[in-house]
Amino acid sequence: MSDFRLLVGKSAIVTGSGRGIGKAIAHLFAQHGASVVINDIDADVAETTAKEITEAGGTAVVCAGSVTDVEFPERVVKTAAESFGGIDILVNNAGYTWDSVIQNMTDEQWYAIIDVHLTAPFRIIRAATPYMREVAKKEIEEGKQVHRKIINISSTSGVAGNAGQVNYSAGKMGIVGVTKTMAKEWGRFNINVNAVAYGFIETRLTQAKEKQETIEREGKQVALGIPEAMRQMSAKFIPLGRGGTPAEAAGPVLFLASPLSDYVTGHCVLVTGGSYV
């Protein structure tokens, strides 16, 4: 019987993969045969996800820590290279929101969100150069054509804007620019670089704010979620009539990571249930 798995023998890094969309991506990659580096700022959460994957017959290792730490990019790419022999797929997914209208937004809020959504992916891609670009150069000299994939996670807040999220919108539009530039810089090395811009996906970032869940960032407690009234209103603008699930969000990333997308690069795929406002 043929093996219909799409990522057999591939190695992948998925940042922010202890929870939510990143976790769904990591599980889906593993189901399709990839060996996955699991990352989360909370080590115990990352370990739990990696254990789930290995208990299901997959392969996963953990590289915990904040993607904004200066030392993290080198550490995560070395984890993949030393554990799996190289890097075939990189998914820059880690992030969070810290919202305010512009007149109330502090420099701290601005830089924190730009760092996680734009500076960190830039540094990680740069750190991956020896394991992606340089390896590809040698393969091309030997007459081999091996595609590697980078998928950057954006948002409709970036490509269309969203009130109260000037920092997040800037970061998420910025990563689209990074995507399109890297597609042009690294295309000749058979490295496909694409982005996925999500609309309303059911995660901790879009849960009801009334739950009063917070995360600690930059020494402060940052509230998660959006008001329930806004959640209900959002569904009315989605042609499919509901928010997406993390599993539904993971599917397009699998496509972009697989051989099915070998002639797709420099694109930003909207995964929004049909909404784009």
User: Which structural class do you get from the secondary structure elements?
Assistant: alpha/beta
- Give the percentage of residues in beta strands: 15-25%
- CATH architectural arrangement: 3-Layer(aba) Sandwich
Measured between the Cα atoms of the first and last residue, the distance is 45 Å
The 3D shape can be described as: globular
Using the CA coordinates, give the radius of gyration. 18 Å
Named CATH topology: Rossmann fold
Report helical residue fraction.
40-55%
**Helices and strands, in N-to-C order?**
EHEHEHEHHEHHEEEHHE
Number of domains: 1
Strand runs, count: 9
What's the CATH class label?
A: Alpha Beta
Report the sheet with the most strands, covering strand number, pairing sense and barrel closure. Answer: 7 strands, parallel
Notes on the structure:
There is one protein chain. With 277 residues, the chain is of the alpha/beta class. It has one domain: 3-Layer(aba) Sandwich (Rossmann fold). The protein contains nine helices and nine strands. The chain has helices at 20-31, 43-55, 72-84, 107-127, 129-141, 156-160, 166-186, 228-236, 246-257, and strands at residues 11-14, 35-38, 59-62, 89-92, 148-155, 191-198, 214-217, 220-223, 268-271. The strands form two sheets. It has a seven-stranded parallel beta sheet, sandwiched between helices. A two-stranded antiparallel sheet has the order 7-8. The longest helix is centred in the middle third of the chain and has 21 residues, at 107-127. It starts with 10 loop residues before the first strand and ends in a 6-residue tail after the last strand.
